[in-house]
Amino acid sequence: MRALYTAATGMMAQQFNLDVIANNLANVNTNGFKGSSAEFQDLLYQYNQIPGAINANGGQMPTSSQVGLGVGQGTTTQIFNQGTIQSTGNPYDLAIKGDGFFSVLMPDGTTAYTRDGSLTLDSQGRLTTVDGYPIQPEIIIPPDNTSVTIASDGTVSVMRAGQTNAQQIGQIQLTRFINPSGLLNLGGNLYRNTAASGDPVTDVPGQSGLGTILQNSLETSNVQIVEEMIKMITAQRSYETNSKAIQTADQMLSDANNLKQ
């Protein structure tokens, strides 16, 4: 009774689907979070009759006789469309409007990437993530500054005590990838590039297809709660339907077992 195993694959697939949906909903308030979508593939087929085959009478079979064996997990595709940008009033909050990531230096010397622009200063005055990872190239804010301005092209300027003109102290750069869905999630709003993501392309904001920077703002999660709720309802109904198929197959086996009685 193939239906037992086929429907079981459907139930397992919907469990995985719900795991992805639950993670999206759990991160609905995570800055720079990008939601994911579960993709599935049908499994192998068993053929009793192959289309185009020659039958015993010498005729060509116009159709096939086949039955599928269920569904398997395909991929989890991360969706990198723009999240909502909210004003915060914090001069160290930066939102990326368009394509691109901030580059950050990890403790092991490697580079990671993030869309979370909730930056802060460490004890050396460096702009860092909330976990203390400095952005690259390094930006050091002088301690005697009275105001910090970050332009849309990433130019960082400060007004220092006793001065009448702003002083440019650095340039924030952004990095983009030809296939951002190929990035590896590290957790903590961080990604790492892989062979699938392609080589990083780094430039000033607004150039080479990169987005621009909005100061005093943050990009929130791009997860749409209503859409995720609809997906969750669909997953639940699909799970129930597959469980009904198992119950029906079980009843058919029971009926066959009771024929002699």
SSE topology:
Blueprint: H1 2-26, E1 36-42, E2 45-49, E3 65-68, E4 71-78, E5 85-87, E6 94-97, E7 102-105, E8 111-114, E9 120-121, E10 127-128, E11 135-136, E12 145-150, E13 155-160, E14 167-171, E15 174-176, E16 184-187, E17 190-192, E18 201-203, E19 212-215, E20 217-219, H2 225-257
Antiparallel strand pairs: 1-4, 2-3, 5-20, 6-19, 7-8, 7-11, 9-10, 12-13, 13-14, 15-18, 16-17
Helix pairs in contact: 1-2
Give the spatial strand order of the biggest sheet: 8-7-11
Structural class: alpha+beta
Assembly context of the chains: single chain
Mean pLDDT: 91
User: How many strand segments?
Assistant: 20
Span between N and C termini? Answer: 21 Å
Query: Main β-sheet: number of strands, strand sense, barrel status?
Result: 3 strands, antiparallel
| Low-confidence runs of at least 5 consecutive residues | none
Radius of gyration: 27 Å
Reading the helices and strands in chain order gives: HEEEEEEEEEEEEEEEEEEEEH
Helicity, as a percent range: 10-25%
User: What's the shape?
Assistant: elongated
Helix segment tally: 2
Roughly what fraction of the amino acids lie in strands?
A: 25-35%
Overall domain count: 2
